[in-house]
Amino acid sequence: NNSNNNTNDDDDDDDSPTILLAAPQRLPSPLMWDDGTARWVRLTSQLVVAHTGLSADGRVVMAAAQRAAVQHEYTYGEEMPVALVLE
Q: Which residue, of 6, 43, 60, 82, has the greatest Cβ tally within 10 A?
């Protein structure tokens, strides 16, 4: 019998220490879920847009942004500036 041991050994016959690890659960970002929908789209060499939420809505917004970027480059011979995208 260990007189130096402060634990109650009545219910525990095993003298090995117990290690308990606890950590908050981190859920993965919705931007990282792979559901077959591109959530990141490059509009120009300097501009990338992303969407979250409903995939159908995101696809519509992304398609409109891509179309506007291509039309701008075709019409003006330059990539669409960020300020114009933000309007």
A: 43
Strand partners, 49: 41
Secondary structure (3-state) at 48: strand
- Kindly state the DSSP code that residue 44 receives in the 8-state scheme: S
Q: Could you give phi then psi for residue 40, rounded to 5 degrees?
A: -120, 130
Whole-model pTM: value is: 0.56
The number of C-alpha atoms within 13 Å of 15 and in the hemisphere containing its C-beta is 5
Instruction: Return the number of other C-beta atoms located less than 10 Å from residue 69's C-beta.
Output: 20
Let me know if 79 is exposed, middle or buried by CB neighbors in 10 A (0-12, 13-18, 19+): middle
* Of the candidates 46, 48, 50, the residue with the CA atom closest to the CA atom of residue 81: 46
pLDDT given for residue 50 in this prediction: 84
- Which of these, 21, 77, 30, lies nearest to 58 by C-alpha position? 30
Q: pLDDT tens digit string along 50-60?
A: 887 777 888 88
